[in-house]
Amino acid sequence: MEFLRFDAQKCVLCGQCVQICPFAALQVGKQNIEVGDNCRMCGLCVRSCPEQAIKFEQHANEIDKAEWKDFLIFAEQERGEIHPVTYELIGEAQKMAKKVGYEVNCVLVGGNGTKQNAENLIAYGVKKVFVYENEGFTGFRADCYADAIADCIAENKPSSVLIGATSVGRSLAPRLSTRFHTGLTADCTTLDIKPSTDLVQIRPAFGGNIMAQIEITRSRPQFATVRYRVMDSAEKVQNPDGKIIYCKASDEMASSRIKIISSELIEKHKSIEEEEILVVAGRGVRNEKDLQMCYELAEMLGGHIAFTRPMVENGLGDHAYQIGLSGHTVRPKLIITCGVSGAIQFTSCMSGSECIVAINNDPNAQIFQVASYCIVDDLYQVLPRMIERLREEK
Fold first, then answer.
1. Quick count: other Cβ atoms within 10 Å of Cβ 316?
2. Are 237 and 114 within one domain?
3. How many domains does the chain have?
4. Do the bridges between strand 104-110 and strand 160-164 make them parallel or antiparallel, or are there none, so unpaired?
5. CA 353, CA 235: separation in Å to the nearest integer?
6. Is residue 114 pLDDT above 60, yes or no?
7. pLDDT reading at 54 higher than 50
8. Is the pLDDT of residue 1 over 50?
């Protein structure tokens, strides 16, 4: 296996790595440890070596792209259920897979009960679901989860691996891309694929001033994380023909150096991504007193208030309800922006909304480029009239 390297000066040929390897991929040679084709990049040998003589190679190599094919999606589980971002990744991967004749597969890692969730994925047209179930996987631990997914990648050689840009995904993706010495593009807003199977990964760069197109042309797999609520969810298919593959998840693979001393379930509140109506306060709202108009409008509509980054930095908004690259991505049915200029850092995270109403006194404001309805006027004249009209309607 080209990714593992042994330091001959440190290695004492103790054979501990050979004994702990769950795939019998290692054997003691005359002068060093020899690695066979069964290596799954699980990392157990690296972690267990008492002399720290084993490491993953730290540079990328060119590979034969024909050996790597299909999409693999990490199906994240949250409180025993599939995270909704997984279905968005499946939907986007299916669009691209048609262009190059690929399949869309998923990998599930978790404790008892994980197998039941695999059936839910099959219903969305997934061809294969690789299941790693072990009680040791209960509760996310980045090191052992990375071992399991690396095993799946090494065995199946997917061309592209898509992961949700959640707190779990952001911890997992860089570990995997480092292990396979290939690229990772974080927080993609658009994905496409070329006939060469190179993934086109588009995301804002340089503070959001440009949209960068990033490609990985010489190595595989290609890793990308995608924010929740950026893409359309997959639809259920009639007569799904996918299959569930149960993979070996040994106790050694599920063991982690992270020990959970205690845990407490935090009550889940409705997040900004789940809101169907949002009223966004931008820099044009001058102070906290004026902000009450936005709160009142949101309440009258049965929605919630949201903020741009400048409002949060000025102490007028809550980061939990910030829209933008440093905040959240939303796709409500209705979004009303009040005094928002429309920088790309903001618009790239809300442009998928069903109906966008923009209020700004600057006719050249960038927000009007994505708005469904443009109101060029002073928001201090518009908002009171909207609120009054809603009162009359009610």
1. 18
2. yes
3. 3
4. unpaired
5. 19
6. yes
7. yes
8. no
Whether residue 176 sits in one domain with residue 71 = yes
- What is the pTM assigned to this prediction? 0.81
pLDDT tens digits, residue range 267-320?
767 889 999 999 999 999 999 989 999 999 999 999 999 999 999 999 999 999
Tokens of 320: 């939990």
Closest CA to 321 of 268, 271, 282: 271
Q: Are residues 36 and 104 in the same domain?
A: no
For 14-18, 243-247, 260-264, which range has the lowest pLDDT when averaged over its residues?
260-264
Q: Cα separations (Å) of 371 from 83, 136, 225, 227, 298?
A: 29, 49, 27, 22, 18
**CATH number for the domain including 366?**
3.40.50.1220
Say if CB 107 and CB 74 are below 8 A apart. Answer: yes
Sign of CA dihedral 362, 363, 366, 368: positive
Considering only CA atoms, which of 77, 84, 73, 80 is closest in space to residue 106? 73
pLDDT tens for 80-107 read: 899 999 999 999 999 999 999 999 999 9
Helices (H), the chain: 16-20, 44-48, 84-100, 114-122, 142-156, 167-180, 251-254, 288-301, 309-313, 344-347, 379-393
Residue partners of 178: CB distance under 8 A and separation at least 6: 56
Which residue matches tokens 């008492």?
50
